[in-house]
Amino acid sequence: MQTPAKPEPVKIAKNPAPVVPTAPGKQAAAVTEKPGGKKTAKDAAPAKTTDKVAAPTGKPTTVAGKTAAPAVEKQQQPTAKKIAGAFSLKTGEIVFAKDAGAVEAKLKKAGLKPVVRHTAMKQEPMNRLFYAEYPDRESAGVDLEQLRAKAPDAFIIQEGGKYVIYAGSYLKEARAAIEQDRLFDKGLRLVMKKTQVKIPVTYITAGSFPSQDDARKAADRLKKSGIKLAVVKSGKVSTKR
Questions:
Q1: Other C-beta atoms within 10 Å of 83: how many?
Q2: How far apart are CA 92 and CA 232, in angstroms?
Q3: E strand or H helix at 152, and its extent?
Q4: Distance between CA 160 and CA 156 in Å, rounded?
Q5: Residue 236: which pLDDT band, with cuts at 50, 70 and 90?
Q6: Cα dihedral angle (184, 188, 194, 200), rounded to 10 degrees?
Q7: Side-chain half-sphere of 30: how many Cα atoms within 13 Å?
Q8: pTM above the 0.85 mark?
Q9: What is the SS3 assignment for 237?
Q10: CA-CA to 157 of 20 to 30 Å: which in 55, 126, 184, 217?
Q11: From the CB of residue 176, how many other CB atoms can be counted at a distance below 10 Å?
């Protein structure tokens, strides 16, 4: 009788290698064996993952060639900014060219820049010293030459189809009255007449100041030089983001 063979004891491997879980969404490479128990060129190691999670840095990230703004950004408030030259100084109306020239020279001497003249036509009350009127210019011209020997400012104008001679024309009534008395002493009896005349007037703008307060201080300094100036707005105050 044949004795049955004893079963070989099962060998238990010491320290078995731990099972490594695969990354989510990834599968381990398949393991195939060729006859003879050899593994294929592709091993059974789990596939490496290249996905990295970037730590939050607060800096803009680049997505598809574009820079994305940070998720939370503090809104920048608009700040007011004064434009240099928002205010300037302006003289009153000046009738006579010589007076405008004198004021302009003082402003330039004070160091104000720029200094600009402006001219406009305006109706002004005028005081004229009436001498006589004539039906034609020829006869008026003869008397005008004689009158100018005593009144150099005499002139002829046409009014209502007639030619009228005036010994002078003055903006200020007091000045007209002085000339009237002077010519009376020379034997000329003249009548003062008031009328409205369109004449050119000049005003000057000067300086460039960032604030109204700076312009007012400059006007106060120039007032001591006998120049009365008003503060005017020549620019705008803008907001810049």
A1: 13
A2: 12
A3: none
A4: 13
A5: very low
A6: -100
A7: 3
A8: no
A9: coil
A10: 184
A11: 22
Residues 6+ apart with CB under 8 A from 217: none
Q: Position of tokens 């001497």?
A: 109
> Omega of the bond prior to 114 within 30 degrees of 0, cis?
yes
What pLDDT, in 10s, does the model give residues 130-177?
999 999 999 999 999 999 999 999 999 999 899 999 999 999 999 999
Query: Token match 């900014």: residue?
Result: 81
> Is the Cβ–Cβ distance between 104 and 115 less than 8 Å?
yes
Round to whole Å and give the CA distance between 203 and 222: 16
Q: For tokens 């002139």, what's the residue?
A: 155
- DSSP 8-state code for residue 99: H
In this prediction, residue 41 has a pLDDT band, given cuts at 50, 70 and 90, of very low
In Å, how far are 72, 81, 84, 85 from 78, measured between CA atoms? 19, 9, 19, 21
Amino acid identity of residue 112, one-letter, is: L
Give the residue carrying structure tokens 């600009």.
Answer: 116
Which phi and psi (to 5°) does residue 11 adopt?
A: -90, 130
**Angstrom distance (rounded) from CA 137 to CA 156:** 8
Q: What values do phi and psi take at 117, rounded to 5?
A: -90, 140
